[in-house]
Amino acid sequence: MAGYRKNSNDGPSAEDKALDLFAEMMIERIETISKDWTKPWITEGSLGWPKNLSGREYNGMNALMLLLHCENEGYKIPRFCTFDCVQRMNKPSEKQAKEGVELPRVSVNKGEKSFPVMLTTFTCIHKETKEKIKYDDFKKLSDEEKKMYNVYPKMQVFRVFNVAQTNLQEARPELWNKLANGDAVKLDESEKMSFEPMDVMIRDNRWICPIKPMHQDKAYFSISKNEIVVPEKSQFKDGESYYGTLWHEMTHSTGIEGQLDRIKPSGFGSDEYAREELVAELGSALVAQRYGMSKALKEESCAYLKSWLDHLKESPQFIKTTLLDVNRATSLVTQNVDKIVQELEQNSKVQQDNGQRNEVKQSVPEGKVFYSSVAYLQSTDDTSRLDALREKGDYEGLLRLAKEYYDGDGINEQYTFASPRQNKGDDLLIEDKDFAVVYNNCVGGTYEVMLKYSEQEIRDHITRYGVRLASSDIKEVAKDMAAEQFSAMTRQRTPVLEMPSGDILHIGYNRDADTLDVGTATNAGLAVSHSFPYDHDNSLDSNLQSVNEKLNEMEQYQKEEVEYSGGMHR
């Protein structure tokens, strides 16, 4: 790859090296396909979506390269971690340290080589003092304080290892088995033949343009009519071929003006046309992979194989711009498909729960919505397109474009709030069932894309992950949950502790102070002697056990000892 670029005197950057590697891998893949165009882009159709150890998904560009990397190296679990992440696994928890528990050390196997992933980070520098602060801290500043900082976006390269390159299986067998069993996408042949979310999307006309299955022999997206035409499902050899073709044309349809503005007027066979075919091919392959299917090259795209190879060999930068477009397009496709998947799952759950209405259920306020920040846009490249739509009054178009920036991650608990307006000058421009866009005219005009969650979803998140990094609004929900759990427990048993000294202590949960209060029962209520902060990262039983241990360590509750010396009591 040395001939692809003239390097500076300082040598190639980490980004250049990553792009060189990505280009090499794409060249190898395209050359393989050119020998047999029926071979899928990604052959391991059962391989799950690449994630880090905490479950955060990689975006389209990194996901594609990590999937190819897994296939090339034979990795069966698509989970990756940095060297620092591996080291952090060896740090004991506070409880483990207190109990002296020593876990087997996790390490990267000797001789293993890392793989690059590319992420955009932001550097925030004070205009006068030149002090740097973290981007998360910058977002917490007031509008006036933000004016004192310059913010510079930068593409950074991080090196990751697959879990198979570590001794995780031996050191943490339970975690290894959880990862091994949880990441594989398991669809039987009947599910591949009939993927209900896509069938619903077509039936209910829920894509950004009409999709028309017709009994004929061509599949295409018409720019002039803004519609997709495909043969009927029965005309394809299997369901994977049908849905793969749909996703190819759907990827094309994301590129028109008013959507992602990717497709420019160009003649058939031009370089721009060839590049758009590559975007559609890689986009459909990634979407297929996400839903447990494989995607082979569309026959009409074979004519562009040489053009793709020439561009890649001439400039690896070509793969970066292409994959960024693939990422935006696939995000739009999967957002719409996932929404229907969630609706179908919810409907299925409702049906399963039918007939169980007499069961006692936790009372949860209905209709309460929380807003989680998924993108904060302030660079001109991002805001100019949104500004144009806002100035035209096209808020529906603005919302569609803003959704592109959602990368599929879960709740951003640190920036999830009960109201979308968090700063002075915030203006809620538009929202739908799932998303909201907030505009702030300060500092040149910024946009914040927010994903909406129900209170039940917030509660489920708290149960799984605690509130260590959560916003104050999420912590308020956690307090409600603790109060409800404590109340439910007191209906079954009274929380009373008998100390070694013989003292009988009662416990109550103080929601206002978020503490477990301990004292003696009186006619007027609990006479509090001690208060302990409630730990929402642990269960109620664990909190009560912790309180009991702390009380037992207090001298005032120790059992009185009778000492004897020389036969005389003292």
From TrEMBL:
Top-rank taxon, per record: Bacteria
Domain N-terminal: 21-161
Boundaries of every Polyvalent protein metallopeptidase domain copy: 215-319
Pfam entry (one): ArdcN
Single GO MF annotation: single-stranded DNA binding
Protein name: Antirestriction protein ArdC
Naturally occurring in which organism (per UniProt): Butyricimonas faecihominis
